[in-house]
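Records of this kind hold a single protein each, on a pair of labelled lines. With that in mind, the following record should read easily:
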Amino acid sequence: MSPWRSRIGLLLFVLLWIPPGKGLVHAPYATNTFGVSLNTGLNNQLFTLFIIKEFEGRLLESQPISREQFVLQAQGVVPSKANPDGINLFRKYDVEVCLPAGPDTAGKYLMDCRVFDDLWRIRFWEYPFRLAEGEHPGKGWAEKREAPSPRQLLLLTDYGMMHARDIARGENAFRLLRDVGDSAWVDNYRKGY
């Protein structure tokens, strides 16, 4: 018997011997998800939104997207590789400020989410751009002029952000958006209880 025939026979024996449902494990693959950063991004926004490609927790690629693209893709209205099932991720992660209000909201979606208007407050204590006369967006929440304090950075590590320039990814991004819309979280972030 040739050595090849014996190897093929052994391989067939092993494959047939494995019980159904207990077969070979598929190799892990890269996944896409959404991300949020406090760095200035597209159209001079004081944050950047991304579609992130990661593998085993490592960032492979980050593609900036607009605020509108993020909102529509995260709601499942527009197809997205970061939301292939087309579910409303704002609903899944309880980001209430990004959900339509009212009793009958099934099938309704928003074109924008006001929580993005407050993301700058995490990083700055005062709005960093010059505004038109009479405009005033209010105060930021950072304890230092242009960055969160070490205590505030410690709070941001809960979202996977070790530095203010890091990206909150996946579920962490949506938890950050949810918490920015929560007055109790904001109070804790500002005052440091």
